[in-house]
Amino acid sequence: MVTRFSLPSPAKLNLMLRITGRRQDGYHNLQTIFQFLDYGDTLDFSWRDDSQIHLSPDLTDVPHEDNLIVKAARMLQQDSGCRFGVDIQLHKILPMGGGIGGGSSNAATTLLALNVLWDLTYSLTELAALGLRLGADVPIFIQGVSAWAEGVGEVLSPLQLPETAYLVITPDCKISTREIFSHPALTRDSVPIKLAASEAQGGRNDCESVVKALYPAVDDALCWLRQYGDGKLTGTGSCVFLACDSIQHAQTLLHVCPFAGFVATGQNISPTHQALALISKNSS
Ligand SMILES: C[C@@](CO)(OP(=O)(O)O)[C@H](O)COP(=O)(O)OP(=O)(O)OC[C@H]1O[C@@H](n2ccc(N)nc2=O)[C@H](O)[C@@H]1O
Ligand SMILES: Nc1ncnc2c1ncn2[C@@H]1O[C@H](COP(=O)(O)OP(=O)(O)O)[C@@H](O)[C@H]1O
Fold it and tell me: Which residues are in the GHMP kinase N-terminal domain (predicted)?
């Protein structure tokens, strides 16, 4: 039995995002393309023989019980009736409210890890259904392959994409997803399109105009990126990104960039799943 291991909890990008309607419950129907990055947080998990769930350190501004890691662990413990517990150490590098899915990724990594640590036998579909209760973005991180997504982001069709190098700018502002989705000026009537990998190159993000109007720092970052190519917003922001010819090209741009950011490579298989495959290989 594996009793301690570490897993990556990667960022995602929305390579395009269309909002095609609003449901009765207030959630929006989307069409988006998700790709993972080889950049993100790391979580260390250690098995406990009591039922306690410990997480450290706490995140500034996020009460312990609201942390999606704690919520995910408690949810799985309750659903499975498992009597074990866990110590979790979080190494956070992803900015919060950046549209790169850090909280959802942390929740998904926790569900995937505890399924192994507690020797449970949930399928990915079952874990994704549990994860959806925590956030619309959790299922993509559970499924772990780049995808075309519809519904609220949980109806996933795997998609092979070029594993492009990206420059990601992280403007110094935290954006609430709820704030953007409740804005009266948000475009929410885009015509649905058919699954098209070509959208990954040219697709737009329907949140862009509202986000730029509310957050000038995002507008500034996009203007800067667009000197060099087709800069885009991910999710509801605040991060913006540019597909580059190579990692070196992305690093050269980061070097002259007046804003904070990072360089990463797109991944069609989530780094969490890549690491889990190694853990199960080494333990068998
Ligand atoms: C917009 C996207 C695109 O990937 O990413 P982010 O910018 O948050 O990373 C996601 O759909 C976000 O997913 P997630 O961050 O898990 O959202 P949730 O916690 O479920 O929802 C936060 C709030 O956003 C609104 N919301 C979210 C998703 C959706 N399809 N329609 C919505 O209207 C709802 O008002 C909800 O109360
Ligand atoms: N483990 C966590 N990591 C990040 N954010 C979390 C976490 N748990 C709860 N949150 C809350 O979720 C919000 C959204 O976080 P995040 O997923 O990083 O951004 P986004 O939805 O913009 O991609 C944060 O602002 C924070 O209040």
Answer: 67-144
Domains and CATH numbers, the chain: 1-284 (3.30.230.10)
- Residues of 160-187 as b/e, b for ≥16 C-beta within 10 angstroms? ebeebbbbbbbbebebebeebbebeebe
The predicted pLDDT at position 204 comes to 93
Asked about 12 being catalytic, the answer comes back as yes
Ligand 2 pocket, CB under 6 A: 59, 62, 66-69, 96-104, 106, 174, 177, 235
Instruction: Work out the burial of residue 268: count CB atoms within 10 Å of its CB; fewer than 13 is exposed, 13-18 middle, 19 or more buried.
Output: middle
How many Å lie between the centroid of ligand 2 and the Cα of residue 219?
Answer: 22
pLDDT digits (tens, 9 = 90+) for 62-107: 999 999 999 999 999 999 999 999 999 999 999 999 999 999 999 9
pLDDT value at position 154? 92
| Ligand 2 nearest-atom number relative to CA 69 | 1
Of the candidates 140, 142, 135, 133, which has an alpha carbon nearest to the alpha carbon of residue 156? 140
CA of 237 to the centre of ligand 1 (A): 11
pLDDT band per the 50, 70, 90 thresholds, residue 194: confident
Instruction: Give the number of the atom of ligand 1 that is nearest the alpha carbon of residue 234.
Output: 7
Neighbours of 118 (CB within 10 A): 20
Distance (Å, whole) CA 252 – CA 220:
19
> Residue 17's beta-bridge partner residues?
32, 205
- CA of 91, nearest ligand number: 2
ipTM for this prediction: 0.97
Nearest-CA residue for atom 3 of ligand 1:
235
> CB count, 10 Å around CB of 101?
28
- CA dist 271 and 108 (Å) reads 12
What is the whole-number distance in angstroms between the Cα of residue 99 and the centre of ligand 1? 9
Annotated binding site for ATP: which residue ranges?
Answer: 95-105
